Amino acid sequence: MPSARRNIKYQIATALTIAGLDPTGGAGITADALRFAREGVHPLSVATAVTTQTTRGVSRAAPVPVVELRAQLRALFSDIHILSVKTGLIPSAAHVRAIVDAIPARVPIVVDPVVASSGGYAFVDAAGARAIGKLLIPRAALVTPNLDEAELLSGVCSHSREGAARAGKLILQMGAGAVLIKGGHGDGAFVEDLLVTRRGVRVFRSRRIAGSAHGTGCALSAVIAARLALGDDLETAIAKARSRVRADLRAAFALGRGRPTLGL
Ligand code: PLP
Backbone phi, then psi, for 261, in 5-degree steps? Predict the structure, then answer.
């Protein structure tokens, strides 16, 4: 009787994305899985919500029942050695609790605290946003808010370097291992992303690439999670992810009639 393991030649690094399903593939679990695979990391994906959207915007988001989320996470963690997790859209406090309960303490979590689409569609209710701050951020190896999300989480205006550093420190005090405040939604000729850790603040700076493609935030946190699964340290993972996403931005293309989609 041939063993089921007979054809396994080598073990491959495996990362898990827990986020929304965007049927256009521009954001959410599909975009994350594509980027895991590009790094050579096997993609596992669990949907928290099923969205209806076009390249012009989001019109609906239906939460996946919490009982299904719990069942899927339990199944994956009972069977597979998962090396890192990325979280994106999490629609409610009950979904946050299911995620926090399921992930073993040894697994690094990159938390992209998505609250709304760029077009303003609210993905998360108020209790859900509070639960992300209270329950998930203390478990995060890295939190990757944009300027608006940093402001929402910290209560501090983040639209200056000093403000962003202060917001980052406050989010760090909520228990995160590190905070990367993404400056992409700011203005100016350069994008500054601030990495705030207990050792201080490091600025990642690069020339701004014109245009705003759908899925940039998802892609950055997904590549970081993939690199952590491969054993990169946090700063190397961030530097590589920024350079991959910059290349993806240069390759952005018109998938539909609305916003460009990030290239691969
Ligand atoms: N759809 C899903 C499933 C997402 O996770 C996100 C963002 O994270 C979006 C849509 C919104 O993407 P954008 O900010 O590019 O509008």
Answer: -100, 145
